[in-house]
Amino acid sequence: MMNSLETIKWLVQDQVVHFVHLSEQRIESEQDKIFRYAQEQQLESIPRHLTSVHVIDCIGNNEPINNTALAEKMKLSKAGITKISAKLLEEGYIHRRQLNDNKKEVYFSLAEKGRRVFELHQQLHKLEEERFMQLLEPFKEAELHVILRFLQSVSSHWANKEQE
User: Fold this and answer.
1) What is the rounded CA–CA span in Å between residue 48 and residue 30?
2) Could you tell me which residues come within 8 angstroms of residue 41 by beta carbon, excluding any fewer than 6 positions away?
3) Cα–Cα distance for residue pair 150/9, rounded to 1 Å
4) Which partner for 80 in 12, 71, 76, 150 could form a disulfide, CB atoms 3.0-4.6 Å apart?
5) pTM for this one?
6) Alpha helix locations (H) across the chain?
7) Which residue in 48, 65, 77 sits closest to 108, CA to CA?
8) What is the pLDDT of residues 5-60, one digit of tens each?
9) Burial (0-12, 13-18, 19+ Cβ within 10 Å), 24
């Protein structure tokens, strides 16, 4: 028979698995929402992956920005950012240029097509942030610290698993 600590650990594990499933569904739903909204706004195209939309958002908030800073802000690998930015460049969402004082370093900024995606994402993101803050409202500060520590631990665990 399991003690209460073991029971709680299994319940947490079960909720994490459930959370992952819901996250996958939510990502699909958010992508659908972005695509529908983009059509309403008469945007001719939008990146297929949500991470690409978030890279456009990060560039829009920090332009001009280099690969290293983009990777740090997005909490992604430099190789991952290189791959995503190459695709965004090829599809005309971003520009790539060198600043005059440094010929080696490449900086990204938004093309007009990327600017429209950035503005669309800003509108939708603001609504989502407001909803999420309402979700956190009933929790006390100490509880939020525990939640944060747990989520940081899960993120770190999954990031390490990805490297194996």
Assistant:
1) 12
2) 116, 120
3) 12
4) 76
5) 0.67
6) 4-40, 50-62, 67-74, 78-90, 112-136, 141-163
7) 65
8) 989 989 998 998 898 888 888 877 777 777 777 777 777 778 878 889 999 999 99
9) exposed
